[in-house]
Amino acid sequence: MFCMKALLVDERTLTFSKGELPIPQNGPDEVLVKVHAAALNHRDLNMPLFYKRMREQDASFPVSTYAVGADGAGIVESIGSNVRSWSIGDPVIWSSLAYCGVCSACLLGQNVACLKGNIMGSTGLNGTVAQYVAVPAKLLIPKPEHLDVKESAALSMGLGTAWRALITRGGLQPGETVLIQGIGGGVALFALQIAVSMGARVIVTSSSDEKLKQAMALGAAAGINYQSEDVVERVIDLTNGNGVDLVVDGGGSKTMPIAIQSVRDLGRVVNYGFVTGRTFTLDTYHLMIRQVSLVGTAMHTYSELVSAVRFFSNAKLRPVISKVFSLEDSLQGVEHLESGSHFGKIAIHMD
């Protein structure tokens, strides 16, 4: 059996390590991709902790060691017997959410909520920080021609999540004002790029003046340092007392109260994460009387990612890459992600 190098996580010890796994064999509806580059997401840090909580609730919950990562780009190496739309040698990226296609959510076109879905880089489905990955052919997307392989590898999860939060769930329109909290991570930066490109006015927050400066260079109209400024006061001032039309929030417990106070009457707040915690106190009267829409979102459908990649390509946008590490140095990439100092995506190249 031939083996490949990969970045692994051991769910028993919650530790990352470099190691080897058998090269996967693609099934009849899959392709085998030789991965040229991959990218890390904050989710890669959260998944082992999620499985730990599941095992604390149910001792029989399965544990494993698997390759991390959901995003990547590469070349089709072999194709399954049922695959007709792809050929050996095609440069591809992919949606990382494997879905069944037959459950009630999938039949409604919402495969993001598939009842039997699984995400690359988790128990039962190896990830992309590896030399090879088997991908269902229905998840593949042509690699954008204007991007190199490392930039292309950075797209999938962050770009799709930002698109769903802004467009599908948030309903952002040209000319509106949007507040993006916690600029610097992949989703927030993709949201900034999309919103600016479609003609929205964007306000961002961060604890880093340097990150705010970088965000404004990408088109943000204003930046607020939440450690030295009152975010709500600044937002109200920047919007002539009205508040923003839309807030996109990935912080959770510490940032959602700020989001609700910063949005205008009849405005929308979309949450896609909980970096600062999962719970907060909600004044439902405040929500009701101002008729604020509070919406949750996670990841993206396949069609949303296709639309987002097309938009990115048509606008000739490029993802922001914080640092690139080799597979050999991928543990340093994990440390860089854990530090929270990155501005943009963390890419891993396989050469």
From TrEMBL:
Pfam families: ADH_N, ADH_zinc_N. One of its GO terms (molecular function) is oxidoreductase activity. InterPro entries: ADH-like_C, ADH-like_N, ER, GroES-like_sf, NAD(P)-bd_dom_sf, Zinc_ADH-like. Residues 11-348 form the Enoyl reductase (ER) domain. PANTHER family: DEHYDROGENASE, PUTATIVE (AFU_ORTHOLOGUE AFUA_2G13270)-RELATED, PTHR45033. This is NADPH:quinone reductase. It comes from Brevibacillus centrosporus.
